[in-house]
Amino acid sequence: MSRTPPDRGADAHFRALESLYASAPINRLFESSLTLATAGEARIDFLVSPSSFHAAGAAHGTLYFKMLDDAAFYAANSLVSDRFLLTTAFNLHFTKPMREGPAVAEGRWVSGKRRVFVAEARIVDSSGEECARGTGTFLRSHIALAGLEGYRAP
After folding, report:
1. Is residue 135 part of a domain?
2. What are the Thioesterase domain coordinates in residue numbering (predicted)?
3. For the ranges 1-5, 48-52, 60-64, which has the lowest average pLDDT?
């Protein structure tokens, strides 16, 4: 695990990661926001809209994967302050169709502190029911977080 530089602190790293999430062009397609409150945990509040539905009137798997991967990724990257992590594998399980309305993806770091990290995530709908869960493997890349334009504390 990389140590956060003393002049930045964990809170500044979390805010910079939240800024990075908001700056990603893909997130213009999904109404969502990332919150990092604790190292190893991430929360994405998002809205399931009909524009993400498949032909049978529920959310397409694309939305499940994106939110689960992002929540797990940011839970893991909250522990690494110098490098961007890359998803190398992700396994997901659908448990309930997501309908229109608010939902939450909750990510949690599971293991790994050097090069490879494992994190899991789940999606809960507005009624509190789990809709999906997944586990991802993330690899420390050569991409410096500080070199990414979106990585900055507000």
Report:
1. yes
2. 57-132
3. 1-5
Task: Provide the Cα torsion 121, 125, 129, 130; round to 10°.
Answer: -20
E strands present in the chain:
32-35, 41-48, 83-94, 101-111, 116-125, 130-144
Query: In this structure, is residue 154 part of a structural domain?
Result: no
Which residues share a beta bridge with 53?
A: 59
Average pLDDT, the chain: 94
Torsion sign (Cα): 89, 21, 76, 108: negative
pLDDT range class, residue 8, cuts 50, 70, 90:
low
Number of domains observed in the structure of the chain: 1
Is 153 within the bounds of a domain? Answer: no
CATH number at residue 141: 3.10.129.10
Domain that holds residue 110: 9-147
